[in-house]
Design brief:
By secondary structure, the chain is an alpha+beta fold. The chain is built from 5 helices and 10 strands; from the N terminus they run H-H-H-H-H-E-E-E-E-E-E-E-E-E-E.
């Protein structure tokens, strides 16, 4: 698939307009439009940002012979169903569909722990957490994982990125931030010199930046 077609489909799958994507990447809407029409190609730094934004490999984004899985028809695991036994996914590498303005799908995430509210996963050897109530399409099991099963299942303090979504089409991100305190229903987040509190119900995805998994 050609690059401009991938960019158009990935943006639409994420529920973003060209203007919203341009704001996320700090580029003009006209630039996004030209990319998707095949009239221009993003520079290398922007391509890296796009790959990170859509949570895919750079090779899969730019190479014509690499197909990006653009199918959101998940067949395993109901979305946000409290009756589902999510422990069945522990030790499995999965694609997780998330109701999050930044992520439509968390790809190749190895689930290593489950609590009443959170799925704990490893991606690129780093820990992360998905709010079960923010699952939108379900969970697709791809293969068995490689990490040992861990008991970790709830958010932990440390440096991270946090994505908050009140609706699929809106939300905010805390980048280069740190969880400094965890209470029963909310997190305290430090970004630079500023502190904020976010309720668990509003948090979609937490990606730890200083918590590695062996």
């Amino acid at each position: 698939m050609l690059l401009h077609k991938k960019l158009s489909i990935l943006r639409k799958q994420s529920g973003l307009t060209q203007e919203q994507l341009s704001e996320e990447l700090n580029v003009s809407r006209q630039a996004v439009s030209k990319w998707e029409r095949g009239e221009a190609i993003p520079d290398l730094n922007t391509l890296i940002s796009l790959a990170d934004f859509y949570d895919i490999n750079l090779d899969d984004l730019v190479r014509n012979d690499c197909k990006v899985d653009l199918n959101n028809n998940f067949t395993e695991g109901p979305a946000s169903d409290s009756r589902c036994d999510y422990t069945q996914y522990i030790g499995k590498i999965c694609d997780i569909s998330v109701n999050c303005f930044r992520f439509s799908v968390l790809r190749n995430a190895e689930i290593i722990g489950v609590s009443e509210r959170w799925l704990c996963f490893v991606k690129n050897n780093r820990l992360g957490f998905v709010n079960i109530q923010k699952l939108s399409g379900g969970i697709l099991v791809k293969k068995d994982g490689t990490h040992q099963r861990l008991s970790l299942s709830n958010p932990v303090c440390g440096k991270c990125r946090i994505h908050v979504s009140n609706t699929y089409f809106g939300g905010k991100s805390y980048l280069l931030s740190e969880i400094t305190e965890i209470s029963q229903n909310e997190l305290t987040i430090k970004t630079g010199k500023f502190y904020a509190k976010e309720k668990f119900d509003d948090i979609s995805v937490i990606l730890m930046s200083d918590r590695m998994c062996p």
